[in-house]
């Protein structure tokens, strides 16, 4: 960068001091009004803190999972995924030409001791379910025990740590939906295995019980399943298999709707509202507010330093040098504020990540890149008006101001 022969302060002129770079001028300008700089920095940091946290939450809500997990397709009732399907559909789907593996899941709606201890719990067929979900890892002996024990329970590592459960422990789970033929809504289980998830950020909170035990002891919904999970024989054959399944059950009392696992997860979240749209609106509102506040302050700064800019231009500096100072100041403020906010968000996410309930939260590289891109855009936008004013500033008029 070209250096200046004189310092650039509001009340000074050329006094023969040592050369000073444009970056030094930017730093001095920001520190001339430390309180104003601090307030702008806090506004930007808070906005990017909110940005980082909401993007991390949205990443969990819209996570598409791993693409190499066999292109699992989820078959549910065409009316609504909360409506069950006949158990017989499992074998019929498994017999289709394009199907490799088929299994089923049924929502149990369980909790431990009291309703606030809610559990993501499913009734499954262990022998069919575990091969379809190879990312669920456990000790071979525990796996065998879960498959063998009719009242066995497969528990995620996070849930086991949450309640202090150990392998071999007897626990009683209640259902918010189903009742037991023995009376009440409670079922007795033994913790047969504790699993971890091999996928990055994979769920380790779910609880799995035997469908056979559940099906023969519940008072209603016998021989019905919640959904069917099927994998295609050929790579990339998920879409064709989905069409074949829905065609096979067209015009039946229980028509099906088959989608990919990722689409099914998004449909499940959609029942709580459009999460992505909500996050986008909140982030957009925060950024618009921040843009107005910072932009207005930057314009005030530019007007207050018109004499300084006039001195700078009178020393013979070209328009490009003036532009670098004005734009550089805005970019430095925006980028440092964004980094501060994103670092705070990373710290909060790290604390939450340690909790089983927020284990999937993560500040991914994509969030950092998006945040820095937004910071650059913010810096350029807030510099636009002050830059135009600085470039069009008349030196004689600027120097004539008190």
Automatic annotation (TrEMBL):
<feature type="transmembrane region" description="Helical">
    <location>
        <begin position="321"/>
        <end position="345"/>
    </location>
</feature>
<protein>
    <submittedName>
        <fullName>FtsX-like permease family protein</fullName>
    </submittedName>
</protein>
<dbReference type="Pfam" id="PF02687">
    <property type="entry name" value="FtsX"/>
</dbReference>
<keyword id="KW-1133">Transmembrane helix</keyword>
<keyword id="KW-1003">Cell membrane</keyword>
<dbReference type="InterPro" id="IPR051125">
    <property type="entry name" value="ABC-4/HrtB_transporter"/>
</dbReference>
<feature type="transmembrane region" description="Helical">
    <location>
        <begin position="37"/>
        <end position="57"/>
    </location>
</feature>
<feature type="transmembrane region" description="Helical">
    <location>
        <begin position="365"/>
        <end position="385"/>
    </location>
</feature>
<dbReference type="InterPro" id="IPR003838">
    <property type="entry name" value="ABC3_permease_C"/>
</dbReference>
<keyword id="KW-0472">Membrane</keyword>
<feature type="domain" description="ABC3 transporter permease C-terminal">
    <location>
        <begin position="281"/>
        <end position="394"/>
    </location>
</feature>
<feature type="transmembrane region" description="Helical">
    <location>
        <begin position="275"/>
        <end position="300"/>
    </location>
</feature>
<keyword id="KW-0812">Transmembrane</keyword>
